[in-house]
Amino acid sequence: MKLDSLKALNAERRARRAAVLLTDLATGADRLVREDDVIAGELGDAVKKAFRTGISGTVQADGASWFLNASLPRPRLVVVGAVHISQALAPMAKVAGFDMEIIDPRTAFATAERFPGVPLYADWPEPVLAAKPLDAYTALAALTHDPKIDDFALKAALDAGCFYLGALGSRKTHAGRVERLRADGASPEQIGQIHAPIGLDIGASSPAEIAVAVLAEVVRALRTRGLGEAGKARAA
């Protein structure tokens, strides 16, 4: 790897942006590819797959051998609400490779005793997300049922382009949420990105089962980015 390529790759890592370093195995020439770069042909398909999976390796494409070094930010799961679902979700998310953190200004719920070893912010989402901004490799789950807490975080996630947004509540609850987000400037296209009710429909009832459904939906959203609806249906 050339020094300039390494410096560029490290800069993308520091900024929590995904990148793939392409190396032509015949010549040793390399170049850094970012997610919004357009590459045609078989190599382009291989690069898209590397961005979805984060898996590095050798591919044969367009009559040449390439090594794709995929560098994806570690996925982050921000949960708004120190509730029972969050307690079950925290250890699962860790095992699945997510950096999870919890935001809840209700200090009776947001305690280290209930969430050992989990980054916990007993504050409103506004100051927390100003200090730790959301990004495209962050998923946000709003679980408080309280618009005063959830709505700001959801709008911030929409504006940041988070790869997943989910909100707890019935369809009637979500209808009211939609109206508030529209009033706050969210577009219909943005609002359509919110998974509500949150989680895959597996008939979950207990907090632990709902946590499983949420995490499964988050993982699916992460691994099907850029596939389009048809591709997502095949991956389901």
UniProtKB/TrEMBL annotation:
Domain spans labelled XdhC Rossmann: 77-218
Family matches, as Pfam families: XdhC_C
Identification of the protein by name: XdhC/CoxF family protein
Organism: Kumtagia ephedrae
Family annotation (InterPro entries): MoCofactor_Util/Proc, XdhC_Rossmann_dom
